[in-house]
Design goal:
The protein has 724 residues and is α+β, with helices and mostly antiparallel strands. The protein contains 26 helices and twelve strands. The chain has five domains: 60 residues; 218 residues, Cysteine proteinases (Cathepsin B, Chain A, Alpha-Beta Complex); 60 residues, Helix Hairpins; 112 residues, Helix Hairpins (Orthogonal Bundle); 103 residues, Cathepsin B, Chain A. Strands 1, 2, 3, 4, 5, 6, 7, 8, 9 and 10 form a ten-stranded mixed β-sheet that branches. It has a two-stranded antiparallel sheet with strand order 11-12. Helix 24 crosses helix 25.
Length: 724
């Protein structure tokens, strides 16, 4: 059935693409979105033909993916008007030197070291290596511990090696306790090499040697410009991060060795072959053709296992901006014949016992404006700094292994002994000799938590009435000691007296002045006005009833009676009947489910029986933004538009908000009073025949308009969305 549907879909789409006007409109939208301009009409025509070929290729691949023939999808991105050769010539940049080829698997000199093989010496076939590879649930993602910097865009410059190197040093510097700080590939571009990397590309060895010798400054200090300029020696000298050694790891396709290197030592910079499907990659596990020469550098930040496809994968950080792949990250198939050469040419930073702490101490003094009274004092502080840095590094290694639940970093006080730090920063003058009275019945619940930063009021002492009510209403924890008091009264010291939350809040709600203030704040926030004083008094009473109802529900939610909480919102002055009248209006009945067999009602799917199994399409980036139907019973057009948005995104076109207003105006039986139809089929048929245009082209107005034929500004069916 699926194959039949997608085949029909493919035929319809191809037919649409053959219509010159439809394709031309899509091409115009592509140029606008990616700010494309060309030298003349002739080049524009050539780019349009390339765009059409790429669109057909991407669509046909995604049809195969929908049919289970591929584990990844592609989409139209900034490269859609370029050929594979053009992209390689302008947006990659890894060029391996003959010296690097010789040194890949041999001992090297000059401060960089030979990487290791698997624990037993041959391509990761050792006991632990193989055990880890055989455990399909085993995975690790260095992003999860906050040591991977933001995705960047190298632009039209062959600087991928510089970006991958800077990303590796960023990660290393974060792992030893300095936090994430984007570093400058422009510094390497201007100062590190005596040729123009934007035109020629670069290998790993000269780049890493430069970084080892000079360190890197921050992106903010030396921002990227996508072209080579003269070296700014002043900016270059403001070093914020460095490495002391670097080394080759893995090699000869040894994915087991790369696995262990990433597991034990952190991310690695690698060279891969980027091919045409890789340029348009969107999501999933990439297993496309990529066996050509290595031409692009990326950062491996982890690995994992995907149960539905039974595939292991590498997680790589690219340098083509957040529009490529999954927010700038990709997933390349792992342990499948060294796909894309991931384990042929790999580099990591290397921390050994002879690290140059003298340079690091100078950078510490510069960053925090440190000066000392004498040389003897400075030498003493340098030794303390070194001891603290080694302690921080050792602690963080254990934290990454799960032995600690927190990490440390080098800060302004890194030249103080622990005793000096306590003397300078603590000094609690009174003793807390006995524990504060606590309700022991709740001490066993480890799941409850509260963080006032999330409420946006940390540091405030006095809250408005609405803040006090809403902070309480939004509380979802189960603790009933200090948590309840802070929920009502703001941020207290731990010595504050506990209050019983029921009596306190009911007393608050019964206070007429408090209630009037809360209602006045509600009217102000949501710009409410009423026709008469009588109507306002009526709405105030409804508001109070709703507030008490919400509060009562949330008390039961805190007790575990309900699994969700409620809150006071824009419609808090409406009765339940008024709310339904305003927002729902689904007027058709659905007797039997469409295409549903009674036999299914008693069957138990294996996934249904597995309570741990779940899926959230938001995680795949195929769900559009939440919209507001306002005072119009248009939930059905909104739900249909959202479904088609998701389908269109899953087909590789990205998220484009579609127009429920088109359905409201053009579909017979649709109005702000609801959709008058026996089921969904007529509406689905309308969308299949006519498609949907974008929200931007046909914006929502929360009312019905009379639309004449041809009044959609030249819009053609299948221009943006097609449902089948």
């Amino acid at each position: 059935m699926a194959a039949k549907n997608t085949s029909h879909l493919s035929a319809l789409f191809k037919k649409s693409l053959e219509e010159k006007q439809s394709l031309h409109e899509m091409y115009k939208e592509f140029k606008t979105k990616f700010h494309k301009t060309y030298a003349d009409k002739s080049e524009d025509g050539e780019r349009e033909q390339i765009f059409k070929r790429n669109m057909l290729r991407v669509f046909e691949h995604n049809v195969d993916a929908m049919n289970g023939k591929s584990s990844y999808t592609e989409h139209i991105n900034q490269f859609a008007d370029m050929t594979e050769k053009e992209i390689i010539a302008q947006f990659t940049g890894f060029r391996m030197t003959p010296e690097e080829k010789k040194r890949m698997n041999g001992t090297v000199s000059g401060g960089h070291k030979k990487g290791r093989k698997g624990r037993k010496g041959k391509k990761g076939k050792g006991g632990k290596d193989q055990k880890l590879k055989d455990d399909n649930s085993w995975s690790y993602d260095w992003r999860s511990v906050g040591v991977i910097g933001p995705v960047q865009d190298q632009g039209q410059c062959l600087s991928c090696t510089l970006f991958a190197t800077a990303a590796l040093v960023e990660s290393y510097w974060a792992r030893i306790g300095n936090g994430i700080r984007p570093l400058s590939p422009q510094q390497i571009l201007d100062c590190g090499l005596d040729y123009d990397v934007c035109q020629s590309g670069s290998a790993f060895e000269p780049v890493f040697n430069y970084v080892k010798d000079r360190g890197l400054t921050s992106w903010d200090n030396y921002p990227y410009q996508s072209r080579k300029n003269g070296c700014d020696r002043d900016r270059e000298g403001r070093t914020v991060a460095r490495i002391n050694e670097w080394r080759w790891v893995a090699g000869n396709g040894d994915e087991g060795a790369l696995h262990l290197a990433v597991q034990d030592n952190g991310p690695a910079t690698i060279a891969i072959h980027a091919s045409e499907p890789f340029f348009s990659y969107r999501q999933g596990i990439f297993d496309g053709p990529c066996d050509g020469d290595m031409n692009h550098a990326v950062l491996v930040v982890g690995y994992g296992y995907d149960k539905p496809t039974d595939m292991r994968y590498w997680i790589v950080k690219n340098s083509w901006g957040g529009g490529w792949g999954d927010g700038g990250f990709g997933y390349i198939r792992k342990d499948a014949g060294n796909r894309c050469h991931v384990a042929d040419h790999c580099v990591q930073e290397y921390l050994d016992d002879k690290q140059n702490l003298e340079k690091t101490f100078k950078e510490f003094k510069y960053e925090f404006s440190k000066s000392y009274e004498s040389r003897e004092e400075e030498r003493r502080r340098e030794q303390i700094f070194r001891d603290n840095m080694l302690r921080v590094y050792g602690h963080n290694l254990k934290a990454l292994d799960g032995k600690y639940s927190y990490t440390l970093r080098v800060g302004v006080d890194a030249d103080l002994t622990p005793e000096e730090f306590r003397q300078n920063h603590t000094r609690c003058p009174f003793a807390l000799n006995r524990p504060i009275a606590h309700n022991e019945s709740h001490t066993g619940d480890k799941s409850g938590s509260v963080d006032w930063r999330h409420q946006g009021i940390s540091g405030q002492r006095v809250l408005t009435h609405e803040d006090m009510i809403q902070s309480w209403i939004d509380t979802t924890g189960s603790s009933r000691t200090l948590t309840e008091t802070t929920g009502l009264k703001g941020l207290h010291t731990v010595a504050s007296q506990r209050h019983h939350h029921v009596s306190t809040l009911l007393e608050y709600l019964d206070d007429k002045q408090n209630l009037e203030n809360a209602f006045n704040e509600f009217k102000s926030e949501f710009s409410k006005s009423y026709e008469s004083s009588e109507e306002e008094r009526r709405r105030e009473q409804i508001f109070r009833d709703n507030m008490l109802r919400v509060y009562g529900h949330n008390l039961k939610a805190l007790d575990g009676t309900y699994s969700y909480t409620s809150r006071v919102s824009v419609d808090a002055d409406l009765t339940p009947d008024e709310f339904r009248q305003k927002h729902t209006h689904c007027k058709f009945g659905i007797s039997p489910p469409i295409g549903h067999s009674k036999s299914h009602s008693t069957s138990v799917d294996s996934h249904t029986a597995d309570k741990s199994w779940s899926v959230d399409w938001r995680d795949q980036g195929v769900i559009g933004p939440v919209q507001d139907q306002q005072d119009c019973g248009s939930c059905v057009p909104f739900a249909m538009a959202a479904m088609v948005e998701s389908y269109w995104a899953r087909s590789g076109h990205g998220i484009t908000p579609l127009s429920p207003q088109q359905i409201l105006d053009c579909f017979p039986g649709a109005s702000c009073e609801g959709v008058h139809s026996t089921n969904f089929r007529p509406l689905l048929s309308y969308i299949q025949k006519n498609g949907l245009t974008s929200w931007e082209n046909y914006p929502y107005t929360a009312k019905v308009h009379v639309i004449g034929k041809g009044s959609l500004n030249g819009w053609q069916p299948l221009e943006l969305a097609l449902f089948c």
